[in-house]
Design brief:
This protein is an alpha+beta fold. The protein has 2 domains: 227 residues, FAD/NAD(P)-binding domain (3-Layer(bba) Sandwich); 122 residues, D-Amino Acid Oxidase, Chain A, domain 2. Helix content is 37%, strand content 27%. An 8-stranded mixed β-sheet has the order 6-5-14-15-16-13-17-20. A 6-stranded mixed β-sheet has the order 8-2-1-12-19-18. Strand 15 and strand 16 form a beta hairpin. Helix 1 packs parallel to helix 10, helix 10 packs antiparallel against helix 12 and helix 13 packs across helix 14. It is globular. The two termini are 39 Å apart. It binds 8-demethyl-8-dimethylamino-flavin-adenine-dinucleotide (RFL) and P-hydroxybenzoic acid. 8-demethyl-8-dimethylamino-flavin-adenine-dinucleotide binds next to helix 1, strand 13 and helix 10.
Length: 388
């Protein structure tokens, strides 16, 4: 098989890049290790920044998002049983975020792709990258026991943190920066109305809790748990009790419980690799960087990479210029480090991090500072809605 861009991974990064390229008349093939249903079964992000909303519209995959997505103008920080509302729209000259699940974004992009002639190979096994430092890269894979080769101009590694793209780069050509947090998030999805119309980030002395949603009737709740916690030790009743305990009283009183549609534990990690380009191989999304979910940045960074890579490939095929391809890594990393800083900061501010009483007092002082400082609130607001 021959194509212009071989895309590895059909998560949001690969699907979005594929859709932008297809709309531009640039051929691409997506190789995905899992089945379509498996990919659609993953419950992840929920907050879309303005840039992500815009690029989904540009890709022609926004009809349902524009109908069903919930536009938010603020969120709440809670600690010591108090609310601090961050009216981010007011503090950022009108910027908003949209609550719309990653699962739905993925479904919309899959449906848009199915309406085109572009090829997606699900259950592609043993995907391997070859010769990406030459002018004729190749990707090989196996499907139903048969070996296949794709000859291409470029490879887009959109295969998440554990995929083969980043791992195919020799260790001495890549620098990896990593920090693992000593806790994870236990998440629960249920068809119950959310405790508040807006997202609540709650700092409690026993650990962080987050109240989010997918719609007015579907809630997504999380609590901080130790990194070695087992999901089997968390029957639903235990989750509900602990979640309610960590909310401010006003929100706790409004909690409605119901059967879990999904429960899972995700470890928290910060990770960035440099560079993100290796000749004709481009890493995009979680294959190049991971942020802890506290800042709601992962999916938005992924969409930013897909858009940046698309613009670079458009210039290459349209005008024969490689300026944007050559600056891809620097262009992305600037944005990625700033979002990583914000995600790390939100994580350290809101989680139970340290037993050291001095550190805990500093954490309290920082939260109190935010209450009285418009500058502090504006900093949170402009990072939350996404830096330009
Ligand atoms: P994905 O979604 O992991 O997709 C990668 C795809 O590559 C496939 N793959 C392979 N394909 C072929 N061959 C192989 N050998 C392969 N190995 C892997 C995989 O099967 C998969 O389909 O990465 P992508 O596309 O870069 O997207 C990144 C986002 O998924 C991620 O950043 C976000 O979900 C992070 N995130 C959040 N981001 C936000 O912007 N806002 C949020 O509110 C938010 N909340 C979250 C989150 C992530 C969470 N978890 C589970 C870590 C909440 C949570 C709990
Ligand atoms: C979510 O809705 O899943 C969500 C919201 C905000 C975050 C992380 C996850 O910071």
């Amino acid at each position: 098989m021959n194509t212009q861009v071989a895309i590895i991974g059909s998560g949001p990064t690969g699907l979005l890049l594929g859709q932008l390229l297809t709309n531009q008349g640039i051929n691409n093939v997506i190789l995905e290790a899992k089945t379509k249903d498996y990919v659609l079964g993953r419950i992840r992000a929920g907050v879309l920044e303005q840039c992500t909303i815009d690029v989904l519209r540009e890709a022609g995959a926004s009809e349902r998002m524009d109908k069903e997505g919930l536009v938010h103008n603020g969120f709440n920080l809670c600690f010591n049983n108090r609310y601090l509302r961050i009216p981010f729209t007011q503090l950022t000259d009108g910027k908003v975020v949209m609550i719309y699940g990653q699962t739905e974004v993925t479904r919309d992009l899959m449906e848009a792709r199915e309406g085109t002639a572009a090829t997606t190979v699900y259950e592609a096994a043993n995907v391997q990258l070859h010769d990406y430092t030459s002018d004729s890269p190749r990707v090989t894979y196996e499907k139903d026991g048969e070996k296949h080769t794709i000859d291409c101009d470029f490879i887009a590694g959109c295969d998440g943190f554990h995929g083969p793209s980043r791992k195919s780069v020799p260790a001495d050509e890549i620098t990896e920066y990593e920090y693992e947090y000593p806790f994870g998030w236990l998440g629960l999805l249920a068809d119950v109305p959310p405790v508040d119309d807006e997202v609540i980030y709650s700092h409690h002395e026993d650990g962080f809790a987050l109240s989010s949603m997918r719609s007015k009737t579907r809630s997504r709740y999380y609590i901080q748990v130790p990194i070695d916690e087992k999901i089997e030790d968390w029957p639903e009743e235990r989750f509900w009790k602990e979640f309610q305990r960590r909310l401010p009283a006003e929100a706790a009183a409004k909690l409605v419980t119901g059967p879990a549609l999904e429960m899972s534990i995700a470890p928290l990690r910060s990770f960035i690799c440099e560079p993100m380009q290796f000749s004709r191989l481009f890493l995009a999304g979680d294959s190049a960087h991971i942020v802890p979910p506290t800042g709601a940045k992962g999916l938005n960074l992924a969409a930013g990479d897909a858009k940046t890579l698309f613009e670079a490939l458009k210039l290459h095929y349209g005008e024969g210029k490689d300026d944007l391809l050559n600056s891809y890594s620097d262009d992305c990393l600037d944005r990625v480090w700033k979002a990583s800083r914000f995600s790390w900061w939100m994580t350290t501010l809101f989680h139970k991090f340290s037993e050291n009483p001095f550190n805990r007092k500093i954490q309290q002082a920082e939260l109190e500072y935010l209450v009285g400082s418009k500058a502090g609130q504006t900093t949170i607001a402009e990072n939350f809605v996404g830096l330009d």
